[in-house]
């Protein structure tokens, strides 16, 4: 299909000929998914469906704005602290995320408002102790 469209030949008939010749050569035989329904047929497609589909098929992740990424990291840190093996580890995890939160509040990050305050380390550690009883 690297041929150029000849002058004077209607575009549609030139494309139809290219497809017909490729079919005759068997270039469409044994394509992946042959005989199977198209995925997503009948589903409502969102505004950016093709971007989401590409990200999913490539195993990529959408980059978050820095404020949202920090919120996500803070939630994950809290879960990690609650599941820590030792009290010292739980305390270290909370103190590390608190340092990042304070730095973000001090310097500012791009994205939606942060709406996040440092965690109360003693409260998280107290919850950790109660969960171990």
Let me know the average pLDDT: 87
State the major sheet: none
Please state the overall shape, judged from the principal axes of the Cα atoms. elongated
Order of helices and strands: HHHHH
Stretches with pLDDT under 50, minimum 5 residues: none
What is the helix fraction of residues, given as a range? 55-70%
Proportion of residues in β-strands: under 5%
Question: In angstroms, what is the radius of gyration?
Answer: 28 Å
Oligomer: single chain
Distance between the termini: 71 Å
Structural class, judged by helices and strands? mainly alpha
Number of beta strands: 0
How many helices does DSSP assign? 5
Give descriptors for this structure.
5 helices, 0% strand, 133 residues, elongated, mainly alpha
Q: Could you explain how this protein is built, in words?
A:
Helices cover 56% and strands 0% of the residues. It is an all-alpha fold and 133 residues long. The chain starts with 10 loop residues before the first helix and ends with a helix. The protein is elongated, with a radius of gyration of 28 Å. The protein contains 5 helices and no strands. The mean pLDDT is 87.
